[in-house]
Amino acid sequence: MSPYFCPLAREHGMGSTMCGMVISARFGTQIVFLLLFGRLMRNVGARKIYMASVAMCATFNMMLATIVLVKNDQLFMILSFLFVILSTIGDAGIFCSIYVLAGQENFSIGCHKQKNGDNNESDEDKTESNASGPAWMETTYACGSMLGPPIGGLIFILGGFGATISTTGLCMTLVGFLTWPMYFNQKKTCEGRVETPSIYTAANDRDDENEERVLEAENTLLELNDDENAGPRNVHEAENNKMEELTYLKAISSPTISSCCLIQISSGIASSWYLSSLESHLTLTMSLSTAQVGLVYMSPGLVYMLFTPVFGFLLDKGFKHIPILTLAITANFLGYLLIGPSSLLVFLDPSPCYTVIGLLLHGLGMSATLMTCMSLMLDSTENPDDESNAGIVTSLWECCEMIGGYLGSTFGGLSTDRFGFRVGTNFVLCIEVAMMLVLLLLSTYTWHLRRLTKKKCQIDPVEGKSQTITRGAGWVA
Predict the structure, then answer these.
(1) Span 365-376, mean pLDDT?
(2) How confident is the model at residue 230 (pLDDT cuts 50, 70, 90)?
(3) Checking CA distances to 327, which of 65, 212, 407, 431 falls within 20 to 30 Å?
(4) Is the separation of the CB atoms in 362 and 331 below 8 Å?
(5) Gyration radius of the chain over CA positions
(6) In the prediction, which pLDDT does 401 show?
(7) Whole-prediction pTM value?
(8) 3-state SS, residue 460
């Protein structure tokens, strides 16, 4: 939006500061309403939020296009803020709900394969992760981010700001009509139920014989303690009744989710650190043309688009999260060593070849980080298939990415002005080292939790006691 709005705004007396305020209003609005929509997911539902958000985004994008008809400068500024904020609210609702719906559809496809006997995976290879759906969503988003600027620029040349923004509104309207039938579909489990209130217990890791002994001992213990007004006589039913609603505070208090949030913020910082300063570094230091700079900027997005579904596929096949995150942080670290190159590599002179290799490594690290963090955050909740839990996690995941993007673009430019581009990339290297330490602490916590769980999952056949371990916040798959 910024390349098309700012020239029009300057015609109405708005300076660079006011244009920046209008653009930055999108960041604040998205962060606030992502958290709000995630909280409303339980009561409203992902499909209703998605359809309402698409309608809102399409409507106010069309209305934003009409500001070209406004002659009064003050009214132009007020309407610009109003329509940008309202259309951004629709964007936030779409982002919050679309990943939840993609995960549900991926889950339904897996259930259909199991029902028809098309799933050739062994029981040991099966996983509860539904990362392929969100991974393909990220891939299409990256594709749109690459195609949007040249297509939008062409429309702007032909028809100006009004034609560009109204085209966006018409596209959103078309998307709304195409996805309207989805509103009438309901999420179903493999057993055909509408909801999926599954409880993951430690018995899932044992064979059938031990699981029967666990359930028998649990039910026996409940029967001994029941009074005249006995409640649920099945441990799973009792756990379902006691399941607490996931909130943002509970999610952040989980070591796993809080660690993923920090890694997600660092990924956002790395993704936006060079956006405002790399262009001048390439043109002034390496004497590249504008067309060549554009090709260099496309390299991380291309890798991101290609490898995001690959990591989603690996996660669905049961590949562990920690190794993928280790690869992601390592790739980001090596990438930022070469983008400048870093001033730590005093024996390397700036070269477009090093910059492209560094951006390609960064794109690989970015694709591994985003999908793995989302999958790990979902898997660490007590009920990852629940729509409200997925909404909380998705909105938190997206907010961390936006916070990182805002911090990276702001401090990346400041560090370049103060220290130069090659020295400025060293700050990102320090952040990546810190994230490796966070990942090490997370791995240690995971190992300790699994070891503790094994000790608690022992049955005393004499006393008839057992310990059911629910898969709650803090568990790492």
Answers:
(1) 87
(2) very low
(3) 407
(4) yes
(5) 25
(6) 85
(7) 0.70
(8) strand
